[in-house]
Design goal:
By secondary structure, this protein is an alpha/beta fold. The protein is built from 6 helices and 12 strands. It has a single domain, classed as Purple Acid Phosphatase, chain A, domain 2 (4-Layer Sandwich). The strands form 2 sheets. Strands 1, 2, 3, 10, 11 and 12 form a 6-stranded mixed beta sheet that branches. The chain has a 6-stranded mixed beta sheet with strand order 4-5-6-7-9-8. The N terminus is likely disordered.
Length: 277
């Protein structure tokens, strides 16, 4: 069974209609944006990608989003951009947060601008719902992500069989709990935020694909995207340092999910990691 859902290659259409989604973890700075533009075309061809979701909350200078960086990622092929705790980091977020292709965490308190879920069709017209949630453990205080997930499912009922959840959280336990909480009720729960890809991708018993963290799309000769020397100096001395986005060993990390468009259930999930030459 494990072999069947790990060995996704070119898209088969032997058992009904299949949708294939690529979702990548936190795009970090210029290096991460460069990786998306350079590497996605080959991944789309290799895996037969129908829909591309990217967490972009670190895409502008390593923290936050700007209209310019967002437009660059959409031009590179991203269909929906998810966010996290840095979504409102930069001025001018009002120009992008209303875009139907951009979702911020649904469980921000009432009054926060933007929306926490959206429905965008694939090129073939299959509606894909995307929900963004923010964890509370070791994070800034926000509303309950589990209650927010319930509200999203209620609001989305009947609109899209395919539903992908970005669980942007620090604690592994909170992400795993969300996976089990939503098993059989959404297509996939994919974790972001820690910038380190985990090796626990699987399809849960009721048909929800799960991975604790998709990993970072950005420079890996770094400490989670920042220049390693400054970060090490901070740990060693406890003195403030200026953390710049690193530039070397740039990779795109995420997962490809096979989905039955009729039922919305996942048939398989594999990790992907592709490096710039």
């Amino acid at each position: 069974m494990a072999r069947a859902w790990r060995c996704i290659n070119r898209k088969p259409r032997l058992f009904g209609t299949l949708v294939r989604v690529l979702m990548i973890g936190d795009v970090v700075g210029k290096a991460g944006r460069k990786a998306v533009a350079a590497l996605f075309p080959a991944l789309r061809e290799e895996h037969g990608i129908d829909f591309f979701i990217a967490n972009v909350e670190n895409s502008a200078g390593g923290k936050g989003i700007t209209k310019e960086t967002l437009d660059e990622l959409f031009a590179a092929g991203v269909n929906v951009a998810t966010a996290g705790d840095h979504v409102f980091q930069n001025k001018g977020y009002g120009a992008i947060i209303g875009d139907a292709r951009v979702v911020r965490p649904l469980n921000y308190p009432p009054g926060a601008p933007g929306h926490g879920w959206t429905v965008v069709p694939t090129a073939q017209g299959v509606p894909v719902a995307v929900v963004n949630l923010l964890g509370r453990t070791f994070m800034k205080p926000v509303d309950c992500p589990f209650a927010a997930a319930e509200k999203a499912l209620e609001a989305l009922a009947g609109t899209a069989a395919v539903c992908i959840v970005d669980m942007h959280a620090e604690a592994t336990s909170e992400k795993v709990a969300m996976g089990w909480f939503l098993d059989g009720r959404v297509t996939a729960v994919c974790g972001t935020h820690t910038h380190v890809q985990t090796a626990d991708e699987r399809v849960l018993p009721s048909g929800t694909a799960y991975i604790t963290d998709l990993g970072m799309t950005g420079p890996y000769a770094s400490v989670i995207g920042r220049g390693k020397d400054a970060v090490i100096a901070h740990f060693v001395t406890c003195l403030p340092q200026r953390f710049e986005v690193a530039e070397h060993d740039v990779r795109l990390c995420g997962a490809v999910i096979d989905i039955d468009e009729q039922t919305g259930r996942a048939r398989g999930i594999i990790r992907v990691q592709s490096a710039l030459p």
